[in-house]
Amino acid sequence: QLSRHRGKDQGRDYFASGTPKPDDVLGIAAEVNIMTDILHLIDFYIENGIAYEEPDEDASPKEPKKMKTVYPMTALKTQALEQNVAEYLLRQFIVGVFQSEGEQAKRLERARHMFGQILGFDKDESDNVRDTMSNQVFDNFVSHVLGRKGKMDQQDMMQLAGIQKRLDITDHESEIFLRRAQKNFLRKQIQYIMKGDNNSNNSNDDDETPAHVVSSADLRAFREMCNSVGLEPERDLELDHDMVMDMFRVEARDSVLNGDINLDNIESVQEIQESLHLDEVECEDVFNDLVKQSAVDILLSVTPEGMESRDSKLVNDIDSFIRLVYFMDDEVGDEIKESITEARANAIYNFYEASKYGEMDPDKLKKNKEVLHQALGATVDMDEPW
């Protein structure tokens, strides 16, 4: 009563240091090992017969008669602890069980349910606290493994089996925690890949921070990570369909522009579509559209000023345009030709020929010139020296 009235401890408790000092603290805050004290408390309950057995009135009459353990005096019932403090103490005990080893670990595992009841929690409430801890443990483990190597191998699953045993959870519960942790990690990954720092939305118009660029390499790694753990972006991660289509667009477009995908391995586009579990016809239409739009964007970027200054980036862009040409059908090809004037087509062709002269294998240069000349509808004589 005096402690409650004055708002501070008035007892003769033992301090971790042995002798009380002005800055000494007691209890959990002292950061000392409380596991032994908890086991002593459990032994006290057992040896003094405080807990007793009685018939379980809630059991079904059709089932064999069951007994239940009653704890007439608990920390919550006597108001010795507040609810949040009791939960924190139980979480600390579960952490101690998880970190212990050998015979001590076995004893602590057996004592977990009893300690929860001594605090005043029934089995379901104790399991809820344990499940919260289990979620955190699985989240940390999965984030570490997938973040480090992008997949989970047999050794990782063996480690998880050990964690499962320490947490005293079933195979089914372990599978639920694992799936939940994998989904949480992958959702955070794709959010960062597609949108960058979540705080970037708070920036104002005067912020000079460069715009976030979605990396096709990151998307490929994410896609492979999903495949390795057997999760589909749209069905399992519940990603918006438009976002998954954007993932397809970025990876397919960049792979064509940088040469990773060409006519010799065009099936790679289908691989992206299948691993994202998207509709084949829809992806085919999207791919044709992105080829056309990327080609138009490149032609618009080739300005007279850039050609006059011999901008090397424009040369690389035209190389990318040539790669795109191989994926165009006749209709798209005609639209590209109609989008630029004859003079501009000839200027782009001459600029490319002059920039590549002496820097590329003659046979490859000749092939590229033929493709570019036809795609642009240029009228300049190909045999005429630049």
Explained architecture:
This protein has 386 residues and is mostly helical. The chain folds into 3 domains: 23-195, no CATH class; 213-278, no CATH class; 298-386. Helices cover 62% and strands 2% of the residues. The chain contains 16 helices and 2 strands. Strands 1-2 form a two-stranded antiparallel ribbon. It starts with a helix and ends in a 10-residue tail after the last helix.
In short:
This protein is an all-alpha fold and 386 residues long. It is 62% helix and 2% strand.
List the helices and strands and how they pair.
Layout: H1 2-6, H2 35-47, E1 52-55, E2 67-70, H3 83-99, H4 102-119, H5 123-149, H6 154-167, H7 171-195, H8 216-229, H9 241-257, H10 267-275, H11 280-301, H12 304-308, H13 312-325, H14 330-338, H15 342-356, H16 362-376
Antiparallel strand pairs: 1-2
Provide the succession of SSEs: HHEEHHHHHHHHHHHHHH
Class of secondary structure makeup:
mainly alpha
Number of strands: 2
Strand order of the largest sheet: 1-2
Approximate helicity band: 55-70%
Low-confidence stretches: 10-16, 25-31, 198-205
Largest sheet: 2 strands, antiparallel
Query: How many separate helices?
Result: 16
Overall pLDDT: 83
Distance between the termini: 100 Å
- Residue fraction in strands: under 5%
CA gyration radius, whole angstroms: 34 Å
Number of domains: 3
Shape: rod-shaped
Organism: Nitzschia sp. IriIs04
InterPro entries: TIC110
Protein name: Tic110
